[in-house]
Amino acid sequence: MKLCEGTVFFSGEMLEVLDMALPVAEESVAGFYKMSTSGWGRLRYDVKTAKDLFDHEHAGHAYAQVLRYVGIPWQRSTQASVFTAYRICLQDGSILRCLRENRQISELPFLVYILVHELVHVVRFSRHLQLFEASSEVRMQEEKKVQEVTDRIASEIMVSGMDLVRSFFYDNGGSGLDVF
């Protein structure tokens, strides 16, 4: 893994906020899609921050992106053993820059909102509601759908400052959320 010069990483404090944000986002998305604990557990995804990303996982201007990986478990090579996993790649520098430029936005609701958005993508890809490989036109339509779902889910999340975050993304048309 080679990092770009000047790459910015989350502080220990920001990683603690992320640790609080992820379960809120997971629970909210699972509730929206009415997924049981076992159903949620079958989703294969992980969340990584800039320090743990490979070069191709850095997305520049976006706050996050979802990447798809296809794997075969070691010692198995049958088609039935092939699996798909998703990686939510948080872009620390873009997130921190936005928070610095918009001081009225709090870290926790901002991270919750970003994670909800990316988890909605993961659920939609996993349930084959949207193909991962799609034309740019289809991707734009998908982003609009995911943004609408994200906002509906976020409207039910009782985290202080979520209304400001929702307004921020509404005013900016959801821009910067991801580049799936």
From TrEMBL:
**Protein name from the UniProt record:** DUF45 domain-containing protein
> Which species does this protein come from?
Desulfobotulus mexicanus
